[in-house]
Amino acid sequence: MANTEPQGLIAARLAYINDLFEADIGKGTIPGAVASIARHGKLAYLESFGFRDREKKLPMATDSIFRIASMTKPLVSVAIMMLAEEGRVRLVNPVSTYLPELKDLQVGVEVTGALGEPELKLEPARREMSVQDLLRHTSGLTYGQFGDSLVKKAYREANVFDPRQTTAEFVTKLSRLPLQHQPGEVWDYSMSTDVLGRVVEVISGMDLAEFIAARITDPLGMKDTGFSLTTEQAARVAEPQIDPATGTRPPMPRDLTQRPRFLSGGGGMVSTAPDYLRFAQMLLNRGELGGVRIVSRKSLALMTSDHLPPGVRFSADTYPRFEESAPMPEFGQGFGLGFCVRKETGRNPVPGSVGDFYWSGVYGSYFWVDPQEQLIAVLMLCSPDLRRHYRAMMRQLVYQALAD
């Protein structure tokens, strides 16, 4: 464990992390991983394991680059809060204030037709979605790939997530489709943050990649984080291993050396464990790192508080009921403005602290920030099917190593 300082973590118990990943890599369960921990503002653990490409026998390195998928969302959420601090956006405002196409959206309600088949009936939204709704996933939007409702089928038929479109074209496409839910009534993990990305563009006059680079990643020294990569960086990308059941690799999106047309605020970025650790340290520092202030401490306090309204329902399509990292009340969880937040000491089957906040990516990336313990952890994997298992295991392995 080179270049680390223990910071109240027991070295012999940190070795359990090594033991777990080395054993699973040896069994062929996963190709590789990078695990990192910071405490009290200093690096306490940083290790790479296995392969970034098992079939090519290319070893994993601590600076290996990963598709972080939905761990893009916290960066875009911070971008919106920066604009709010400048008085250029109000969270209470309808989204149509900034994206007029999204005014007067209707909600799709399934009814039984004359022949007993489900049909889609449109009804007016009782209120417009707000910017706050986008941040907390209560906008009424959804993801078309999870579940099989008629609205989700309409999303798929419209090819809402077409990588060939621009963010402006994406919003136009959404404006022609019904909402899955009444705004404010259901937490449904959705394309809300992709819409936020377009809000950033309209308000700032910059495309999303340019804004995040200029205002967040460049100031924080996150040199390997963005929407596309140089040829040198692309040579460091971690890839999934071949699935023995199919003889093929799980499909990964797009050539990362090509700048995408669709800058997905919900899942389009890449990063490394050290880079994302810097972003997370800025969050733990209440908006500042190395003399650079990204957002204010009050904005971070607002973002990491529970924003789900009383009586909100939860969509079963995007998260199973027994998912310890989802904002489910039975696990003592809520959702803030871009992060899941822990509200209670009990209920959750994995360790943490009241006030910790976190999110993850579908390919296996995961991070959390624990202000009570002054602790950050970032896990990078490229093993989509096992992401939930390793998220829970990483929590157990980090907290069991605390000495004080």
Query: Numbering strands along the chain, what is their spatial order in the largest sheet?
Result: 3-2-1-16-15-14-13-12
Main β-sheet description: 8 strands, antiparallel
The run of helices and strands is: HEEEEHEEHHHEHHHEHEEHEEEEEEH
- The stretches of 5 or more residues where confidence is low (pLDDT under 50) are none
Structural class: alpha+beta
CATH superfamily of the largest domain: DD-peptidase/beta-lactamase superfamily
Beta-strand segment tally = 16
Outline the structure in words.
The model has no long low-confidence stretch (mean pLDDT 94). The chain is α+β, with helices and mostly antiparallel strands and 404 residues long. Helix 2 packs parallel to helix 6 (192-204) and helix 5 (167-175) packs across helix 6 (192-204). It contains 11 helices and 16 strands. The strands form 5 sheets. The protein has an 8-stranded antiparallel beta sheet with strand order 3-2-1-16-15-14-13-12, with helices on both faces. It is globular, with a radius of gyration of 21 Å. A hairpin with a 5-residue loop joins strand 5 (106-112) and strand 6. The protein folds into 2 domains: 11-72 and 208-399, DD-peptidase/beta-lactamase superfamily (Beta-lactamase), CATH 3.40.710.10; 80-204, DD-peptidase/beta-lactamase superfamily (Beta-lactamase, 3-Layer(aba) Sandwich), CATH 3.40.710.10. The longest helix is centred in the first third of the chain and has 16 residues, at 11-26.
